[in-house]
Amino acid sequence: MNAKSIIQRKRDGARHTVDELRFLIGGALAGRVADYHVTAWMMAVFFRGMDAEETADLTRVMIESGDRVPPIEGPVLPVDKHSTGGVGDKISFLVAPLVAAAGVPVPMISGRSLGHTGGTLDKLESIPGLRTDLGAARFRDQVQKIGLAIASQSANLVPADRLLYALRDAASIVESIPLITASILSKKVAEGARALVLDVKVGSGAFMTEPAQARRLAESLVRTSAGLDLPVRAYLTRMDHLLGRTAGNALEIRESILALKEGPDGTAADLRELTRVLGGAMLELAGAAPAMEAEARIDQLWRSGAGLAKLRAMIEAQEGDAAVIEELSLLPAAFRTVEVEADQEGIFCGVAARAAGDWITESGGGRLAVGMPIDPTVGVELLREPGSRVERGDPVLRLHLPEDADEETVTKRARGWIRYSESAELPSMILEVVG
Question: Is-catalytic flag, 183?
Fold first, then answer.
């Protein structure tokens, strides 16, 4: 067995054995298989694909490459929620504490910003003092103790994923559905989740812009998870407009805290819908509530303040300043802000997600390369609710600017992000359910 023959087999459309995958992945991590061989093999996978059983085998081999979080004990299944990434996507900060408040363990390994989409860890780290580098033992103990942890992937958790992702990114083969599937599921199984809800974003502001492409990814994740004994449900959700009322690290933490304080009635309609649906699905798959009652249970916990209390407990456990729950002014704030007015009358229906996300990234609120520092203060804030009528000259956006921003240039650019509609009726955020 050698790397060249394995590459040739996949190039010619053959199905890999587990031993071939172990030879290739294990050899790459040990330095016995060159990076260029691994890249060539992934390019063959990109064009030839993998079936569900083969993808499950790859996922297992990746899990075996490092440590696993010890089993999290309890009467219900530990459950996680994973999003493929969007602009203003703060759902984790709502569903994770609400589901944990229902007595369901939520182990959540999350990622950082790259490109135009925000990163959960970068947003969390805008809370003064909060740590996301917990390590496997501390991560598991925290979930066991308070029911919730949102943390970074440790060096020993699925190290194969780190290597493969870096090579995929360098070779422009990130979009390979079998490799995406194995990357997502290997981390979720290794972190201790035994059920998973997937939020597969679709639209101009998403990684997957076309519904058919997103559906293929969702179906691959659901089929592959069946071979891993991992119950999974995937939702295809809209990502053309900024989600919620804000985009930007500290702004999104602020909005999440306010949403948990004010309850569903005080939360943006799109954020409210996704929180109920995804949170309810998490309770259902974990075995904590039947399907007909799960969303109502999320609503009840939300209105009771139990989700806010659970978020506070997580912040304290991860060494953050929990006073931020009462004093939102403790969050970092922008150097200055500027308001953007509507340039026509009509029904305001939001802000183009990709355009706003690109500006945030270019202004330092995201990163164009791994390791770049983040400015947590940069962002966009809606001043009017989508579906409301506006007149020309009405303020509809507030931009939170970096110190060196040119207000006139940015304001002119931001007017091009504003979207108008002929109808005040807002469409459902859920496009399709898979699994």
Answer: yes
Per residue in 197-209, pLDDT (tens digit) is 999 999 999 989 9
Asked if 265 is an active-site residue, the reply is no
> Out of 57, 80, 161, 199, which one is annotated catalytic?
161
Q: What is the CATH number of domain 332-421?
A: 3.90.1170.30
Active-site residue 67, yes or no? no
123-154 pLDDT per residue, tens: 999 999 999 999 899 999 999 999 999 999 88
Contact predicate 101/65, CB 8 Å: no
Mean local confidence (pLDDT), 29-56: 96
Where do the domains of the chain lie? 3-49, 79-156+169-327, 332-421
Sign of the alpha-carbon dihedral angle for 111, 117, 122, 124: negative
Name 180's Cβ contacts closer than 8 Å, sequence gap at least 6. Answer: 174, 217, 220
pLDDT attached to residue 165: 87
Residue 399 pLDDT: 98
Which one of the listed residues 183, 220, 256, 363 is annotated catalytic? 183
- In the chain the first and final C-alpha atoms are separated, in Å, by 37
- Distance between CA 51 and CA 379 in Å, rounded? 41
Of the residues 168, 245, 254, 297, only one is catalytic, namely 168
79-156+169-327 matches 332-421 in fold: no
Whole-prediction pTM value? Answer: 0.95
Say if domain 3-49 classifies as CATH 1.20.970.10.
yes
60 contacts 25 by C-beta, under 8 angstroms: no
Q: How far is CA 320 from CA 22, 36, 306, in A?
A: 40, 42, 19
Q: Which of 10, 112, 123, 187 is catalytic?
A: 187
How many Cβ atoms sit within 10 Å of the Cβ of residue 374?
21
Nearest 5 degrees, angle CA 362-CA 86-CA 243? Answer: 100
Selecting among 82, 310, 400, 419, the annotated active-site residue is: 82
Domain 79-156+169-327's class? Answer: alpha beta
* Six-digit token string for 19: 């031993």
Share of the chain above pLDDT 90, in %: 89
The mean predicted confidence, pLDDT, of the chain is: 95
**Annotation says 187 is catalytic:** yes
pLDDT tens-digit readout, 251-308: 999 999 999 999 999 999 999 999 999 999 999 999 999 999 999 999 999 999 999 9
